[in-house]
């Protein structure tokens, strides 16, 4: 609690702020000068200096390009500090059912090299993860960065993920992947193709990582952010107070399998799921039944982009079905931003969502709600995966151990 205008101080649990807390203050932009760090932590000038020295020696901090700014403690203007986002790189990959995208990113999410191509998750984890390892090796060569510069790998998967183990759990769209050791295999694929030492691998659900990437990039002040991905399947990611909300088993946001009372068979084996009637896959099936060639969400996206009237009508109808479910979602979570992303995210679908959402939800839940489309587009999950890895590795509780391993 803040009292009498004296700012809340940042401390490590049970003690003074360490190098990790100082780095966090700089990375978040809350304190970017030595004076501001002293003020935020209550540490002496000498102690702040010692801790910053370690971060400089590790190559994690640099002096800001913006030049000196006025010090909060008065006196001479201070040099600004910033996180050095080039001292290593992150690898990220986003798996969809029939294609994938992979990239090398800076620590602040800038894409240095990228590749997208066909990759079928149905071929199983051995084949898919080995191929991703090969892509990573080629992408690193393109950037000219040595593989030893890679600090971690993030992977977005189109299914429910237990982030504690990095394994997918009963994924309807990923046959053969249930319980498979994804992190171990992907790490091995990376080391085999590059000769680099093992690095941490983090796996999360694609809608979660899209939400994380989009919230940070475009809505950093939104404390309750919901993203709904409507492609071949339907999933949602929830970011609350800047962190992905996963529930206790990683199952939060899996709205595609809410029963909506229809009789269509879903890929999960049940009847009447939302995804069975309102996903890109469902719209493709309806189109195919009436003689329009379409087999996936990506095919529907192409038809929508070409202004195909039947595809637009079916997308709007799908939007209404999703909007009906989202009325419950916004009533429960009261988000500030509801983002519609994925293959179907376009005007017809959004129109359908709005029609039902505003009709069914309580006015108080939607009074300050922005319903928007994606800003990062097809790169959202990659950028979210990269950010997840960086936030994990540079979290205050891991900084001390990593600095000691670097010998600083
Ligand atoms: Zn289902």
From TrEMBL:
Origin superkingdom: Bacteria
Q: What are the GO MF terms of this UniProt record? A: kinase activity
Task: Output the InterPro entries linked to this UniProt entry.
Answer: ATPase_NBD, ROK, ROK_cs, WH-like_DNA-bd_sf, WH_DNA-bd_sf
> What's in the keyword line of the UniProt record?
Kinase, Transferase
The keyword Transferase is annotated on this UniProt entry: yes
Family label: Belongs to the ROK (NagC/XylR) family.
PANTHER family from the UniProt entry:
GLUCOKINASE (PTHR18964:SF173), ROK (REPRESSOR, ORF, KINASE) FAMILY (PTHR18964)
State the name under which the record lists this protein.
Sugar kinase
